Amino acid sequence: MAQARRYAGGVDGNRSLERGIEILRAFRPGVDTLGNGEIAERTGLPRSTVSRLTRTLVNSGMLDEVRAMRAYRLAASVISIGHAMRTGSPVLNAIGAMMRAESAKRRLNVGLATADRTMMVYLESIRYSPRAALRNVVAGQQVPMELTSLGRAYLAGIAEAERERLLKLFKRRSAAATKALLADVRTSIRSVERNGYCAVSWQPGVLAVATPIVLGGLPVYALNMSLQNVDRSEALAGEIGAYLNAFAAKCKEVLAGQ
Amino acid sequence: MAQARRYAGGVDGNRSLERGIEILRAFRPGVDTLGNGEIAERTGLPRSTVSRLTRTLVNSGMLDEVRAMRAYRLAASVISIGHAMRTGSPVLNAIGAMMRAESAKRRLNVGLATADRTMMVYLESIRYSPRAALRNVVAGQQVPMELTSLGRAYLAGIAEAERERLLKLFKRRSAAATKALLADVRTSIRSVERNGYCAVSWQPGVLAVATPIVLGGLPVYALNMSLQNVDRSEALAGEIGAYLNAFAAKCKEVLAGQ
DNA sequence: CCAGCGTTTCCACTAAGTGGAATTAGGGGG
DNA sequence: CCCCCTAATTCCACTTAGTGGAAACGCTGG
């Protein structure tokens, strides 16, 4: 038997840890409280295993037990780890202040995101508002990769193989308008290649324009600028795109100098 | 042998998962990039084990590999989980908007925090600034429990046994000014019991006042109000304390109605 | 090209984890 | 008040998945 013996502590990673993380991932906006049964269903893990792993996660401070409901919630630890991530992000550190300044100067929203599986997650999202007292930052929010300018810019920035892998996943997910959607995505990608940016109106009345940021040794990021309460027009997209290209160039310059 | 056989899938939790979480925890503000060796040192785990677990964490999307430095960084996933936590927090959902309004009305900083081990972590921290354009929210930031009004209010709010456990930990940590510090902490706790709040100037020039929020079935939280560029005075502390008590009462009312 | 160091892989060993079945705990409803 | 019903937890025979010291590997700077 030529097949070499596969040892358990092997290359494919630690099963329990993987499963524990998957449990944490089962909580997301809109799913704030989960019992062991529901977790088992969502993750496909056996009930007894879930019971043991949730116990561990509670002991480690990642979950809070809601005894009254026989359920769990994400604990405060997860945001302190999240905070550490933002704090340690070299890209956000380098250009966060510039993003805020740019938002004020151009009077539009500026965001920075990267991928989490098939979603884009905002590292920072500065919402411009003339009444500046309103909330301005949403970090950690997810938006779908296929449907947003951010996601498509990201797709344009990553390696061929990874891109095709993701496109296949989108195909599998949305059985419906797949053909049109994928064509749309590819158009956006081509737009990035040609003009440096792509424009998408994912939500009605908001025009978003995004561009990838590719740096060796770091994940690919995407920068975007957006405006609410406007109609999508080529002219406007072009204008914002020009701002974005200029801003991204400045950012890359700063980032190149570590 | 009376000792019942202890089975491995036992009550004490899953070892690998615990260790994986400990690795994530090793990253914190100021420690943004860690190699396997450094992780092994900080966590006390054997190098080969760390190597396997970090691989798993990369596969699960919790860590990014920085190949150039043979090191890892927290990945974007952690902030999306953090975001889910904030989104799902019933307390933050119930009183977040009120906190913002209160900050504007009273012209001071308003914060909400809870414990992560021996640290307090902000779920929300609204920094009042007359020039409202400045950044306003810091979620996930940690401050030491023993030294802050937030932490001492928390200590006043939790059960006796847990409080004593924590106090013992503080004693072990800061070998130095322990006696005075612990007395100080107990004074603050008594202040909470008597007046509903305690006042501490942890950072020079900022006066912070905090009160616990205790709800059945949820972790204990602490609310605080603070002001920069002031001297600590009993009068001022009393004034802010009164505001805080009033505000906390309103919050508890809202929270009581789920 | 080699030396030195940190990382990854190997592998014998077995404790640690697994999951189906049995048990227990909770919490309405009769 | 007690009894069901549901869902979570514990039990435990089984064995695989994980462990960690040692060896191999692969950078990087001299």
UniProtKB/TrEMBL annotation, chains A, B:
Residue ranges annotated for the HTH iclR-type domain, each copy included:
14-76
- The record places domain IclR-ED at 77-257
Q: Can the keyword Signal be found in this entry's annotation?
A: no
Gene Ontology biological process terms in this record: negative regulation of DNA-templated transcription
Q: Quote the Pfam families the UniProt record gives.
A: HTH_IclR, IclR_C
Q: What is this protein called?
A: Transcriptional regulator, IclR family
A Gene Ontology molecular function term for this protein is: DNA-binding transcription factor activity
UniProt superkingdom = Bacteria
* Keywords assigned by UniProt, alphabetized: DNA-binding, Transcription, Transcription regulation
Cross-referenced SMART domains: HTH_ICLR (SM00346)
Give the species this sequence originates from: Bradyrhizobium shewense
The record's SUPFAM superfamilies line, in alphabetical order, gives: GAF domain-like, Winged helix' DNA-binding domain
